[in-house]
Amino acid sequence: MRTLAGYVWADSPLHRMRAEAKLAGLLVCAVLVVLASSPLELLAACAGVAALVTLARVGWQVAGRAAWSLRWFLLLVLAMNALLFSSADAIFSLGPLHLSPEGVVQGLRVVVRTLLVVVLGTLLTATTRPQELVEGVRRALSPLGRLGVPVEAAALAVGVTVQFVPTLLRESYQLMRAQSIRCGNVASRGIMRRAVSYVRLLVPIFVSTVRRADELSVAMEARGYRLSPQGEAARGRRS
Fold first, then answer.
1. Using CA atoms, how far apart are residues 69 and 67, in angstroms rounded to an integer?
2. Cα 80 to Cα 27: distance, rounded to the nearest angstrom
3. Is residue 88 within 8 Å of 63, Cβ to Cβ?
4. SS3 readout for the chain
5. Is the pLDDT of residue 230 over 50?
6. Residue 81 buriedness (CB in 10 A; 0-12 / 13-18 / 19+)
7. Burial (CB count <10 Å: 0-12, 13-18, 19+), residue 8
8. Which of 95, 137, 140, 235 is the least crowded, having the fewest Cβ atoms under 10 Å away?
9. Which residues contact 172 (CB under 8 A, 6 or more apart)?
10. What's the distance, Cα to Cα, between the start and end of the chain in Å?
11. Once rounded to an integer, what is the mean pLDDT over residues 71-87?
12. Average pLDDT, whole number, for the chain?
């Protein structure tokens, strides 16, 4: 299987579904995951998402990579819930921080929900080509066009994001690798030096983001892409 901008080439029922149907399914599944609260409900949600990953035939590595990329954010979410959610039956307290069993349970609940929603979103982009996703958003939102909603702009934003974000992530990873080669392993340093190293990465990442956005706008203008006053897209080539 090959990947391109998040899409995984495979033959599965999810790949053959229409994009708007997958968008509606993602919305329904995400709502069900967020509403799941008891351990049994969360276990059923995990089983359902696992079944979808198997059905999609994109490989567990794709879903696992998306979850692993959020590990520090999820750890922060777990810590904040464990220390700030409740002060009842606290194991220990330090000022406004109270580590409680109820907070730990709530943190685990939020982490599991977030992971499941991330995996669902990954399945959407892994089984839907960018152009199909844009067309799906356009068809799904077309009834709202009569109410003045800029459907074409929304579809364009989705298409740009789907193809723009993976590029930025790859460039960020390359910058981190380059810094590691020049300055050694960042993880082996102290906390403060690690923080300074990561902050220094923000400037080149920001510059890369601005440069990519400028290149994209120039390319779209060169191809004569524009939005009409009614929000409908038009493409053409300049004479």
1. 5
2. 27
3. no
4. CCEECCEECCCCHHHHCCHHHHHHHHHHHHHHHHHCCCHHHHHHHHHHHHHHHHHHCCCHHHHHHHHHCCHHHHHHHHHHHHHHCCCCCCCEEECCEEECHHHHHHHHHHHHHHHHHHHHHHHHHHHCCHHHHHHHHHHHHHHHHHHCCCHHHHHHHHHHHHHHHHHHHHHHHHHHHHHHHHHCCHHHCCHHHHHHHHHHHHHHHHHHHHHHHHHHHHHHHHCCCEECCCCCEECCCCC
5. no
6. buried
7. buried
8. 95
9. 201, 205, 208
10. 40
11. 86
12. 79
pTM of this structure: 0.70
Is residue 169 within 8 Å of residue 125, measured between CB atoms?
no
Amino acid letter, 50: A
Query: Measured in whole angstroms, how far is the alpha carbon of residue 2 from the centre of its chain?
Result: 20
* 64 CB-side CA count, 13 A: 4
Tens of pLDDT, residue by residue over 97-143, are 888 888 899 999 999 999 999 999 889 888 988 888 888 888 888 88
What distance in Å separates the CA atoms of residue 27 and residue 133, rounded to the nearest whole number?
A: 14
Angle at 84 between CA 78 and CA 87, to 5 degrees: 125
At 11, the amino acid letter reads D
Tens digit of each residue's pLDDT (9 = 90 or more) over 164-189 = 777 777 777 777 777 777 765 555 55
Spell 185-221 as b/e; 16+ CB within 10 A means b.
ebeeeeeeeeeebeeeeeeeeeebeeeeeeeeeeeee
Band (pLDDT 50/70/90 cuts) for residue 43 is very high
